[in-house]
Specification:
The protein is mainly alpha-helical. The protein has eight helices and no strands.
Length: 148
């Protein structure tokens, strides 16, 4: 269920005006929503979109979800840097983790959106799972050949 935030519609109106779109229908298309939906969010009743719509608005306008919801940006400077370490045991047991970290780093260099990065990681995991399935079948055949 959508939450209420009276100033969300004001921020969305600001983004609409800033976009230079001739009308709300064009703005809706530009941010990946339908016209009826965007009209509802632009009304003064304070309806706030669900997470997928918030992400779409954020992606297409370049504004953070935090700003959309609160009107304030969360400073990256004040956030501690995340620890991105993989234990030697995990590296040995799951060699595809290196590929995933590499994909994340490459996506950052290429300025991928979060959605694009997600798509890349999904494909990387699919390939890794396929390789693991092949290895498992191969080991199963070797075990059967050795015991027979």
């Amino acid at each position: 269920m959508a939450k209420k935030n009276p100033s969300f519609s004001e921020r969305l109106k600001h983004l609409y005006k800033e976009s230079g779109c001739k009308n709300e229908a064009i703005f809706a298309r530009e941010i990946g929503l339908n016209y009826t939906t965007i009209r509802k969010y632009l009304r003064q009743d304070g309806t706030v979109p669900e997470w997928p719509q918030l992400l779409s608005i954020s992606e297409h306008t370049g504004r953070s979800v935090e700003w959309l919801l609160t009107g304030k940006e969360i400073s990256e400077i004040n956030r501690p840097a995340p620890e991105w370490t993989i234990s030697p045991e995990a590296r040995d047991k799951y060699p595809f983790l290196r590929t995933i970290v590499s994909e994340i780093n490459e996506a950052a260099e290429k300025n991928y959106s979060a959605i694009e990065l997600g798509d890349v990681l999904i494909e990387t995991l699919k390939v890794a799972v396929k390789k693991l399935e092949i290895e498992k079948k191969s080991k199963g055949k070797k075990s059967a050949a050795n015991s027979g």
